[in-house]
Amino acid sequence: MKKRFLVLLLLVALSITGCKSKLSTLNVKLNTEAEVTISREGRSETQIGENVQFKDKPVGEYTLVASAEGYEDYQGQVVLQESNEIKEINLVEIKKDDSTNIPENNKDEEVAEVKEEPKEEVVETKEDIIEKVDLTLSLFDVNNNELDAEVVLKKDNQIVAKEEGEELYFEDLTAGEYTLEVVKEGYDKLVKNLNLKEEQEELAVYLLGGEVKQLIIENEEDFSRNIEKISEELKNLKDNEELILGVSYLNSNYSQPEFDLSNEIDRLSKIEYDVRKKGNDLVKRYGDNFAFTTADYNLGDQKEFKISNDVKADKVNATLMGVGEHIYLFVDNNKDIDLEKLDEITDEFDNVIYPTLTRDKTIDKVVVLLTDFNDLPVTGYFDPADLYAHGNQELIFYLNADRSINTLLTSMAHQYQHLVFFLDKAKANRIANDAWIDQGLAQLAQRVTGYIDYEAKGWSKQRGNGWVYDKDFGYLNNTTEVSVLNHDGSIPFSGAASLFADYLLEQYGAGLMEEIMLSSQDPVKVIEGYTGLAFNKIYLNWMTANIADNLATVNNDIYKYNSFNLNQMPKFVEGQILGEGVYYIKLNAQEGLNLKLPEDSLNNQIGIVLIKKNK
């Protein structure tokens, strides 16, 4: 059936309509009917109700006041951004004096009783006067992301404190009036007057400006409003500037990939896809009812191994040729491998891979088999069936003996991480969609063990990161073809998963990785619980990092990879959004934007990143 498309064409000619301000809508929800006023720069608007709405307000910071009879007044600050804002306020009810409720016929008696008590002199104590204040400042950009900035606090035009960070804590400040200055290169300077009068003061500060804007579209109204914002950005571009868009569906649903088995690349991708799917099926059926025992072999021992037909057509008879503290290295009897190479594999596992990737020595020894595979491109293989009764009943994985030494070491780190991940998965009885993060962590293992340079092009033989950079198969040249949450076994997917896993590690630490591996929950839920952020927000920040990591003008670590620099920009495409990948589009004022979306696309949440840069 022929698809129909919703087509929006934004041309430079739109500039004749004039420049519109960036507008937002504020919704205020209260626990009682109240008079609500917002004010900014001498202008104010007041509405009365329990749920009130202030429409078409310029973005920025406002003072918000709410008052109702019988309740304490509320006053605070609210920052309107380029999306609808919701502010919930619970007004505190004023408690009434019980003496006002004394029945008429008991008043004289009650008063008499009160008069009999000695009259106490009311003395104002130091507890009634706040002398010292502790102030906590949290800094954010307009996209609600934490921002590292310099903060200067002044009192009577004298600097009393100067700090830099994302969340800052100032202790024992004298109560009273202060001037707050927040400075970050590439952002608008903020100057704000503060009146500190509570023992504990907490303030969220938002810096406007910056080169990055993020939009989330949830319905047609959002779409129309945000298209206007993109139009405005285009109209305001200078001749030497261009606008980069990143567009992606945010509520991706898992879908089973389709493979053309007559295509060599698809056939190899299916091998990777099938073995991860097999792992999920085994956990559903057997959980952690493993059949392996602690391996105990001696040099020269012979053993027969049965391997999945996906990678090896025949059984393998092998001899134990290498023994390390944590590894038994068997070699196919049909392969002749240099002893120095075997020693290097054993030493690298014991001294690099095992201590880097093993948590609390949960694994003592593994068995590794060097053999050849049906397909030379397959560098290694871990089959979770080997842990159960119908497999080899070993903690084992396989390496392709026909590959170079660094490729073997790279694959050994990768396959061992798969083994560690599966053991945790089975023990936690996790049957959620986790193949995407499993592959991401296995790719990440290649970098943290030092066998792959994330900045280098080429493949593992030269320590290159072809999964990300290869002109035909690398993720940055195929961002529209794969979705991070949909494991399809392909090379571009592995590149995407590796970058996303690395981004999670850098931004939120190794504790998150461990939590993902040990939890019985879906990894998406674990990530949200650990970070306190919606997964879509993290995904949008990662989309941004894949562009902004190359831009010195973007000055916020949340939009960067901090342990390496990406070697290239993503490939730019035309504006036809069909799949669940990320579409990066480059625009200038002369071209305008031709953005095509499937007619039913607005049933999905769409994320858009805008970055303005010099050509």
Structural commentary:
With 615 residues, the protein is α+β, with helices and mostly antiparallel strands. Among the domains are: 23-89, Immunoglobulin-like; 148-206, Sandwich (Immunoglobulin-like); 288-432, no CATH class. Helices cover 26% and strands 30% of the residues. It is built from eleven helices and 24 strands. The chain has helices at residues 107-116, 220-235, 264-286, 339-357, 405-428, 435-448, 466-469, 491-508, 510-518, 523-531, 535-548, and strands spanning 5-10, 23-40, 43-58, 60-67, 74-80, 85-89, 132-141, 149-155, 158-165, 167-174, 176-183, 190-196, 200-207, 212-217, 241-249, 302-305, 316-323, 327-332, 366-371, 380-381, 396-400, 583-587, 593-598, 606-614. The strands form six sheets. Strands 16-17-18-19-21-20 form a six-stranded mixed β-sheet. Strands 2, 3, 4, 5 and 6 form a five-stranded mixed β-sheet that branches. It has a four-stranded antiparallel β-sheet with strand order 9-8-11-12, with no helix packed on it. Helix 4 runs parallel beside helix 5. The longest helix is centred in the C-terminal third of the chain and has 24 residues, at 405-428. The protein is elongated, with a radius of gyration of 31 Å.
Name some characteristics of this structure:
Immunoglobulin-like, alpha+beta, six-stranded mixed beta sheet, 615 residues, 24 strands, five-stranded mixed beta sheet
Could you give a short description of this structure?
This protein has helices at 107-116, 220-235, 264-286, 339-357, 405-428, 435-448, 466-469, 491-508, 510-518, 523-531, 535-548, and strands at residues 5-10, 23-40, 43-58, 60-67, 74-80, 85-89, 132-141, 149-155, 158-165, 167-174, 176-183, 190-196, 200-207, 212-217, 241-249, 302-305, 316-323, 327-332, 366-371, 380-381, 396-400, 583-587, 593-598, 606-614. It is α+β, with helices and mostly antiparallel strands. Among the domains are: 23-89, Immunoglobulins (Immunoglobulin-like); 148-206, Immunoglobulin-like; 288-432, no CATH class.
